[in-house]
Amino acid sequence: MNDLPRTDLPGIVITGASGRMGQMLLRTVAASDKARLVGAIERKGHDWIGRDAGEAIGIGPLGLPIEDEPLDAFARAQAVIDFTAPAATLEFAALAAQARAVHVIGTTGMTEADIAALEPAARHAVIVRAGNMSLGVNLLTRLTQKVAAALDEDYDIEVIEAHHNQKVDAPSGTALMLGEAAAQGRGVSLKEVSDRGRDGMTGQRTRGHIGFSAIRGGDIVGEHDVMFAAAGERIIMRHVATDRSIYARGALRAALWGQDKAPGQYDMMDVLGL
Ligand SMILES: NC(=O)c1ccc[n+]([C@@H]2O[C@H](COP(=O)([O-])OP(=O)(O)OC[C@H]3O[C@@H](n4cnc5c(N)ncnc54)[C@H](O)[C@@H]3O)[C@@H](O)[C@H]2O)c1
Ligand SMILES: O=C(O)C1=N[C@H](C(=O)O)CCC1
């Protein structure tokens, strides 16, 4: 047990505490007057284990040591915010369900099989999962669906994303969310119309397909364009993230929103009422 003051505010555990998002989430929850930090988790063997989470991220002592036993931490939490990696997220889903804690999943790069494997956990606890937790991207997603529904296949849909050079998955979770929304708007299955990784003699573009391109470089936080390209005109809708706090604020909002919901799988559209 840590020596944080006990209050009635929902207790939150952050997994992947040393990561780019883990650190931003620790800052966001520590500064919030709507929740309190009750745990910070890293993988076994990480050199931050045992260090005070606040000192490790440079905001001063929080009285919260970084731990490597997730279930112990989840048992004293009302929510777990998890931006890590697919294998870790599957493990955390089972443990969060055991603890009946809301599991907010920001992790991307999950396969269809990974997502299906969340279902047993969602029978016992609330899971909120989204490839992007920001208000702006979720609005763009809804707009994309509406524009795709309004236009026919004379408009070629392309999703272009750019991220930092440490990102390990492509297309980004956000790009897939946007592509899925475009496919839904058109009334087609993304799986059947998705064009990824064009290279070499690809032949002409297939009418009705949705294309994806990924740029990786430097410290780009996250940029997404949805392009509707037709003869004589192009509509381009763009979201540019300049600070990871937009994702952390969305994740905290999801953790609080989930407190009185029935077990099941939800996304940020549910949280934001979009
Ligand atoms: N949904 C969103 O809004 C959103 C926004 C930003 C990033 N992301 C996603 O979040 C994930 C993390 O991104 P990042 O930039 O913070 O990556 P990162 O590599 O900086 O951090 C990941 C952290 O997870 C930790 N981790 C891995 N396995 C673990 C385990 N078994 N137990 C405990 N900790 C473990 C790593 O040690 C690392 O500290 C990625 O999938 C990324 O795409 C999603
Ligand atoms: O930095 C990342 O990694 C991000 N991942 C999410 C994605 O894959 O879309 C959200 C944007 C930042």
Automatic annotation (TrEMBL):
It is found in: Cytoplasm. Keywords: Amino-acid biosynthesis, Cytoplasm, Diaminopimelate biosynthesis, Lysine biosynthesis, NAD, NADP, Oxidoreductase. Pathway: Amino-acid biosynthesis; L-lysine biosynthesis via DAP pathway; (S)-tetrahydrodipicolinate from L-aspartate: step 4/4. It is an enzyme of class 1 (oxidoreductase). NAD(+) binds at G16, A17, S18, G19, R20, M21, E42, G106, T107, T108, A130, G131, N132, M133. PROSITE patterns: DAPB. GO terms for biological process: diaminopimelate biosynthetic process; lysine biosynthetic process via diaminopimelate. InterPro entries: DapB_C, DapB_N, DapB_N_CS, DHDPR_bac, NAD(P)-bd_dom_sf. It catalyses: (S)-2,3,4,5-tetrahydrodipicolinate + NAD(+) + H2O = (2S,4S)-4-hydroxy-2,3,4,5-tetrahydrodipicolinate + NADH + H(+); (S)-2,3,4,5-tetrahydrodipicolinate + NADP(+) + H2O = (2S,4S)-4-hydroxy-2,3,4,5-tetrahydrodipicolinate + NADPH + H(+). (S)-2,3,4,5-tetrahydrodipicolinate binds at H164, G173, T174. Its EC number is 1.17.1.8. Its main location: cytoplasm. Residues 12-133 form the Dihydrodipicolinate reductase N-terminal domain. NADP(+) binds at R43. Residues 136-272 form the Dihydrodipicolinate reductase C-terminal domain. The active site is at H163, K167. GO terms for cellular component: cytosol. Catalyzes the conversion of 4-hydroxy-tetrahydrodipicolinate (HTPA) to tetrahydrodipicolinate. NCBIfam families: dapB. Belongs to the DapB family. Homotetramer. HAMAP family: DapB. This is 4-hydroxy-tetrahydrodipicolinate reductase.
